[in-house]
Design brief:
Layout lengths: L15 E2 H13 L9 H12 L2 H9 L6 H9 L6 H28 L5 E7 L16 E5 L3 H8 L3 H11 L13 E6 L3
Antiparallel strand pairs: 1-4, 2-3, 2-4
């Protein structure tokens, strides 16, 4: 695809792909549990979230948490601790279920009945690039009106689909300069 960077960082520029910055911001908006799973409080919070109702229990099983009810009860009561492999399964299931649960809310907030959400593009960091190789990049804002594919790809944790949706549904609206914002220091928006 034209405008895509093939050898990013060759001259010292630093940044992350735009879709990764969007995923990071959506994760912030999803309001995940901040206490690490390695602490008892974080583990209990995740387990309560995943086992509170029959619906959440079945969603956790679909997301890969396949332990018996007896084992879950022992973890909740503190009689046993999950292994490292089970901690990873709990964490993965938690993120999967939480993303699935907040999709509808985020879409309603971001689309705002067709009005969209204002997005800030903070250009990549060129402080380590020699003067002759620096590009003139400026802070840009854009109103993104179509978040459906972006949020759905984020919820499925599909990096390639998220990149495609972000470029096709948002970044190209920057006009002929859209390729300059493939890598950024930050993408900012609120919901």
């Amino acid at each position: 695809m034209p405008e895509r960077n093939i050898d990013f960082g060759k001259f010292g520029a630093r940044g992350i792909k735009g879709h990764q910055a969007v995923a990071r911001q959506l994760d912030t908006l999803a309001n995940f549990i901040s206490t690490p799973i390695t602490q008892r409080r974080g583990l209990l919070a995740r387990l309560h979230y995943l086992t509170r109702t029959d619906h959440s229990r079945s969603a956790a099983r679909e997301a890969g948490l396949t332990v018996t009810d007896r084992t879950l009860r022992a973890w909740l009561e503190g009689n046993r601790n999950p292994s490292r492999k089970n901690l990873q399964a709990i964490e993965t299931a938690y993120y999967t279920v939480r993303r699935h649960n907040v999709v509808r809310y985020l879409l309603a907030r971001l689309n705002r009945q067709g009005r969209g959400t204002r997005v800030e593009f903070h250009p990549l960091n060129q402080s380590q690039v020699d003067r002759p190789h620096q590009r003139a990049l400026s802070f840009r804002t854009l109103n993104v009106r179509h978040w459906d594919r972006i949020v759905e790809a984020w919820a499925k944790d599909d990096d390639e689909a998220l990149d495609d949706a972000w470029v096709s549904d948002a970044t190209v609206d920057l006009g002929s300069e859209w390729g300059q914002y493939e890598y950024v220091t930050n993408i900012g928006f609120a919901a």
